[in-house]
């Protein structure tokens, strides 16, 4: 079957055209695979065209050169227009929506991002039916604007030590919300700096002097008409940040501020009129928003990798620098093996991350639906560990990918005009928010230690992928099993010496985090193999297979210490795997531009002078 690159147009830079003419597959078919199917892709393109026609949704000048306030105002201006036309163009699929939002706002986001990513989903997952009726419609129509206020100045990771309180006053049927110290100020919530009228507040629930720990409350903070802070509320902006400066991250404090009892989110946890507290059977049911959000973050990070790689690969195909054969003319930098080493394994990692994102989203949807309908809540612990591991590994990989892409573009990659600095500074925020990466890996490790016995008994750690890649997945499984077993042995040794559980774990935290990483990498590799097997078109399937092969060989090569240990693999085998990486480069090279073209990110959305489709 003849390949076809559908991005090729007359008048494009001939260097790119010659690359595109080498394409061995149909870029539209790969684009559909990467963008949620044929229908989604068509919808995405249709909406992008629609946005292209509506000049009010464009930036009057490049946001790079705007002040922070101008950026926020510009984003709000576009948001207002978007709300006016949203019924004409709104997609139902969130992947399409993400692409639309990225087209309109770029990746620096917009002040309502947390409203849709955290505020609304928390109400959907944690408010009871009556509460949803009260709040969801207003939230959906942005009559109220929400933020998610959990982190405090003094405590982000250690949620158990937050200081904000919500004390039940049985005489008035109200909670009294209070910020007792400066360190108890909520700090960081996105959208809270200037925009939010309401927040989901995470505060310690206190009844009759007993602290029941952090719970979620729906709290108004600004007047919806005047937008002024309500009496008893201190709220404002925390200033500019490394990136995402279209966002207004804020601070928030309360002085004995009263809210009705029914403003506590009561799908799972309840406080009755008499002040009787009821907790759900499984404490992790309250994690549902986190699960949902982390799975979205993984998906977004894969998209950031795609953007960076699209820019770097296209640029590398037109940039000529240096000669291999003296006098034969300068070569495209993409022809250097080192450049391929810098970019191709990351293309494979981006595909693998997307496959893992799709899988965890699917599992999360199934799990949450099941729990909502009264099903087994045990699955939440598995999903929690999975989402923590993936969020941590994929955000770290994305940061590495974008930085490699930037360096692959030389000095021009450092220019704001490449958009790579913006992509990087936005993407790396996710290494910290929604659970700091190291802390998340340690949570995965705790979960793994509980199941370490099963791992030692050779029970499969993930569902078995069938097919020709099964032996390679076994290597990943071996590494994960070994890492888990080592961490477990260290833990057991400490416990045998009389060290308490917490200190025993803390003394070996690095090995714990490595076990968690290895386990997550196994999940990612296995998800990628399964994803490739689901591709129907033979030419596109071949591209997937080549990237899977590269991914498996490259990742295992990175785990050399683990695979060589105890003679599991010989150094010859390892060398062969590393050689296979270069063999993969040769297979992938002719299609490199066509693969990144298939990410199907139009120029308006990519915002990169270096990565333009036509490379003028
Ligand atoms: C861009 C951005 C947006 C944000 N948006 C929001 C938002 O909308 N709402 C909200 O509530 N919060 C938000 N946050 C806050 C974010 O959730 C916290 O920054 C995060 O949870 C980390 O908490 P911390 O900053 O207090 O760091 P700390 O908890 O103080 O951690 C600092 C470092 O110490 C180490 N560390 C901490 N605890 C441990 C441990 N137990 N074991 C080992 N090492 C440890 C880690 O390496 C960590 O990096 C946002 C943050 C950023 C950067």
UniProtKB/TrEMBL annotation:
Acyl-coenzyme A oxidase N-terminal domain segment(s): 26-145
Any Pfam family hit: Acyl-CoA_ox_N
InterPro entries: ACOX_C_alpha1, Acyl-CoA_ox_N, Acyl-CoA_Oxase/DH_mid-dom_sf, Acyl-CoA_oxidase, Acyl-CoA_oxidase_C, AcylCo_DH-like_C, AcylCoA_DH/ox_N_sf, AcylCoA_DH/oxidase_NM_dom_sf
GO cellular component: peroxisome
UniProt key word ATP-binding: yes
Record-annotated Acyl-CoA oxidase C-alpha1 domain positions: 287-449
SUPFAM superfamilies: Acyl-CoA dehydrogenase C-terminal domain-like, Acyl-CoA dehydrogenase NM domain-like
Lineage: superkingdom: Eukaryota
Domain Acyl-CoA oxidase C-terminal: 472-614
Signal peptide (residue range): none
Family under the similarity heading: Belongs to the acyl-CoA oxidase family.
Protein name: Acyl-coenzyme A oxidase
Organism: Caenorhabditis auriculariae
């Amino acid at each position: 079957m003849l390949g076809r690159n559908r991005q090729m147009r007359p008048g494009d830079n001939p260097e790119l055209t010659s690359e595109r003419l080498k394409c061995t597959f149909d870029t539209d078919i790969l684009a559909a695979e990467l963008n949620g199917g044929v229908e989604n892709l068509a919808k995405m393109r249709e909406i992008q065209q629609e946005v292209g026609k509506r000049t009010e949704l464009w930036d009057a000048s490049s946001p790079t050169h705007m002040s922070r306030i101008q950026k926020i105002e510009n984003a709000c201006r576009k948001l207002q227009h978007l709300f006016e036309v949203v019924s004409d163009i709104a997609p139902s699929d969130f992947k399409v929506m993400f692409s639309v939002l990225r087209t309109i706002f770029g990746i620096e986001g917009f002040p309502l991002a947390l409203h849709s990513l955290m505020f609304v989903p928390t109400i959907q997952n944690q408010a009871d039916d009556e509460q949803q009726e009260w709040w969801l419609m207003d939230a959906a129509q942005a009559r109220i604007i929400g933020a998610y206020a959990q982190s405090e100045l003094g405590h982000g990771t250690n949620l158990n030590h937050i200081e904000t309180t919500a004390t039940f006053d049985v005489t008035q049927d109200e909670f009294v919300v209070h910020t007792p110290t400066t360190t108890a100020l909520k700090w960081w919530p996105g959208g809270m700096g200037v925009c939010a009228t309401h927040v989901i507040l995470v505060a310690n629930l206190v009844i009759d002097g007993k602290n029941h720990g952090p719970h979620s409350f729906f709290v108004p903070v600004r007047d919806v008409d005047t937008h002024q802070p309500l009496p008893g509320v201190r709220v404002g902006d925390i200033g500019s940040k490394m990136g995402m400066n279209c966002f207004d991250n804020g601070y928030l404090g309360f002085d004995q501020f009263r809210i009705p009892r029914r403003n506590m989110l009561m799908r799972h946890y309840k406080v009755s009129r008499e002040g009787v507290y009821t907790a759900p059977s499984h404490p992790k049911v309250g994690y549902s928003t986190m699960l949902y959000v982390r799975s979205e973050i993984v998906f977004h990070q894969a998209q950031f990798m795609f953007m960076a790689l699209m820019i770097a690969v296209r640029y590398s195909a037109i940039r000529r620098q240096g000669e291999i054969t003296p006098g034969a003319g300068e070569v495209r930098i993409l022809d250097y093996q080192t450049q391929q080493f810098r970019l191709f394994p990351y293309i494979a990692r981006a595909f693998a991350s997307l496959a893992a994102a799709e899988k965890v989203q699917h599992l999360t949807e199934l799990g949450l639906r099941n729990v909502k309908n009264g099903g087994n809540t045990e699955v939440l612990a598995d999903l929690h560990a999975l989402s923590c591991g993936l969020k941590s590994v994929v955000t770290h990989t994305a940061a590495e990918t974008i930085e490699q892409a930037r360096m692959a573009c030389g000095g021009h990659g450092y220019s704001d005009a490449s958009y790579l600095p913006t992509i990087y500074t936005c993407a790396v925020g996710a290494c910290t928010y929604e659970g700091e990466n190291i802390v998340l890996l340690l949570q995965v490790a705790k979960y793994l230690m509980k199941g370490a016995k099963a791992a030692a008994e050779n029970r499969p750690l993930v569902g078995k992928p069938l097919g020709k890649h099964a032996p390679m997945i076994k290597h990943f499984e071996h590494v994960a099993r070994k890492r888990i077993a080592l961490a477990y042995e260290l833990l057991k040794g400490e416990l045998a010496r009389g060290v308490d559980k917490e200190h025993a774990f803390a003394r070996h935290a690095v090995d714990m985090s490595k076990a968690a990483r290895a386990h997550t990498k196994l999940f990612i590799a296995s998800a990628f193999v399964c994803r490739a097997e689901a591709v129907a078109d033979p030419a596109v399937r071949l591209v997937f297979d080549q990237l899977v092969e590269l991914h498996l060989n490259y990742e295992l090569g990175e785990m050399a210490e683990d695979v060589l240990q105890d003679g599991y693999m010989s150094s010859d085998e390892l060398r062969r795997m590393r050689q296979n990486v270069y063999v993969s480069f040769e297979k992938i090279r002719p299609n490199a531009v066509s693969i990144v073209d298939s990410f199907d990110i139009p120029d308006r959305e990519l915002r990169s002078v270096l990565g333009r489709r036509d490379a003028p």
